[in-house]
Design a protein that fits this description.
Elements: E1 10-18, H1 23-39, E2 43-52, H2 63-76, E3 80-83, H3 89-99, E4 102-105, H4 106-117, H5 121-135, H6 144-147, H7 161-165, H8 168-195, E5 200-206, H9 212-220, E6 237-240, E7 249-253, H10 263-268, H11 274-277, E8 281-287, H12 293-306, E9 314-319, H13 327-336, E10 341-342, H14 348-365, E11 367-373, H15 380-387, E12 389-396, E13 399-406, H16 408-420
Parallel strand pairs: 1-2, 1-3, 3-4, 5-7, 5-8, 8-9, 9-10
Antiparallel strand pairs: 6-7, 11-13, 12-13
The structure holds guanosine-5'-triphosphate and magnesium ion.
The site of magnesium ion has 5 residues, from helix 9.
């Protein structure tokens, strides 16, 4: 983790507004960096952005701006400069040497939050892997601060300061070890998922802090930790959607997304995100009260594409609708997102409506069947109860007449059983 002493470090935030982009995007991204920094207990002294046609290859910012920042660092006694962009190893090294101040970029801050919030061995390993991959190309001539005793950046447990000084070979070895360990967990998860394949699976996805865990809690009656913090959830949790009939609908809550999510993190979290890839339906939860709603939707869609989950059917859920107070705003949302489900994790009625929409989605996918079971095979009825939703059962002269609904997978299972019993060809 970033080593900073107990007292809050004074930080200054910097961003570049590329003229090809909308200014609001730069500003809201810088605000987001501020919330990340606040979650890390940094003391935010100020922020600024510079408009440029393109980033300077050597220093990202222009030289004039760098001088201005240097003065601020001196007068405000800034400890760390936070950059709202990803810096190349050379840019990072140059800026840090020039400013003579610890410089952290967006990726490092996101990695740091993940490191602090990781609780399970798996998520800790995933974060460590991403940190090491980030660190590897930066080892040669490591940024000046890494050599300092105080205020240097180390990674979370086991990847700390000491490891920064060990050679690349050891880091590569560690990377291989972590990848192998994670691979093992991924295999175990695959087996678990197979067991669940007779259930419908719903993955809750969306931008960080959109209210995914709060909705999961409301829908399933569990009490997972929901917090007004970015990346409160890093692990995937699966629960049964309450009050549903056979087959069960399983809901999985997982890690949230953010713009410019480091690729190494997405790659490391592939296994955790397998609940998303394997889902039959995605609930794309978005904070309906956020002015950055569109950007959040776009980011989530991009990450879904990156992890190979862009073909799964999606229900868009505009959450926190209780916070949309202005009638005008509400009208615009209704018009623009006519297909979306308007919800609030704080409103039981709306949660129940969401639950109905989910069950309705799957009911539509159920296949209606009429199966006749000869009395000599009466034991099959209990199997039908297991693998389908029995709606009516009548004991006729020629056999037991069952009206039931089932999934396509279970229909194939039933056909196999009937075939083996020579009840069908
Ligand atoms: N007003 C209001 N607040 C909500 C609603 N849903 C969630 N929140 C609050 O928003 C914050 C974030 O909620 P979470 O459920 O942790 O969000 P998340 O999407 O799981 O966030 P991460 O796990 O950090 O990605 C918490 O403080 C919740 O209490 C809602 O519908 N209305
Ligand atoms: Mg969460």
């Amino acid at each position: 983790m970033i080593e900073y002493s107990q007292e809050n470090k004074k930080v200054y935030l910097l961003g570049v507004h590329l003229k090809s982009q909308k200014l609001e995007v730069t500003i809201s991204s810088l605000e987001e960096l501020e919330s990340i920094a606040r979650s890390l207990d940094f003391d935010i002294i100020g922020k600024m952005h510079q408009s440029r046609v393109s980033p300077d290859s050597k220093s990202y910012f222009g030289q004039g701006k760098l001088n201005q920042i240097k003065d601020i660092i001196a007068s405000e006694k800034i400890d760390i400069v936070l950059f709202d962009h990803d810096l190349s190893p050379n840019q990072g090294k140059y800026i840090e040497t020039y400013l003579d101040c610890l410089v952290l970029d967006r990726t490092q801050l996101i990695l740091e939050i993940f490191a602090q919030h990781a609780k399970t061995p798996e998520s800790k390993n995933q974060v460590e892997l991403a940190q090491l991959k980030y660190m590897l190309p930066r080892l040669v001539g490591m940024w000046a601060h890494l050599d300092r005793e105080k205020g240097g950046i180390g990674a979370s447990k086991g990847t700390g300061e000491k490891q920064i000084n060990i050679d690349r070979t050891l880091i590569r070895k560690r990377i291989h070890h972590l990848e192998a360990t994670l691979q093992k967990v991924a295999m175990e998860r695959k087996v678990q998922n197979k067991k669940r394949s007779d259930c419908f699976q719903v993955g809750i996805v969306g931008y960080t802090n959109a209210g995914k865990t709060s909705l999961m809690n409301g829908l399933t009656g569990v009490e997972l930790l929901a917090q007004d913090k970015l990346f409160a959830t890093l692990e995937s949790t699966t629960r049964i959607l309450s009050d549903t009939q056979s087959p069960n609908i399983l809901l999985s809550d997982t890690v949230g997304f953010i713009r410019n999510l480091p690729h190494s993190l997405v790659a490391s979290f592939r296994s955790t995100l397998s609940v998303v890839r394997d889902a039959d339906l995605l609930l794309h939860v978005v904070d309906g009260s956020s002015p950055d709603l569109k950007e959040h939707i776009r980011t989530t869609e991009e990450v879904l594409k990156e992890i190979g989950a862009s073909n799964i059917p999606v229900l868009l859920v505009l959450n926190k609708i209780d916070q949309v107070i202005e009638e005008m705003d509400s009208m615009i949302l209704t018009k623009e997102y006519a297909e979306a489900i308007f919800c609030s994790a704080r409103n039981e009625e709306l949660i129940n409506l969401l639950k109905q929409k989910i069950t309705h989605f799957f009911n539509q996918k159920m296949i209606q069947k009429e199966t006749t079971i000869p009395y000599r095979h009466a034991g099959l009825v209990s199997k039908l109860y297991q693998i389908s939703r029995v709606e009516n059962i009548a004991y006729e002269e020629h056999g037991i007449q069952v009206s039931h609904a089932m999934t396509q997978i279970n229909e194939r299972i039933l056909e196999k059983i009937l075939h083996e019993m020579s009840l069908i060809n």
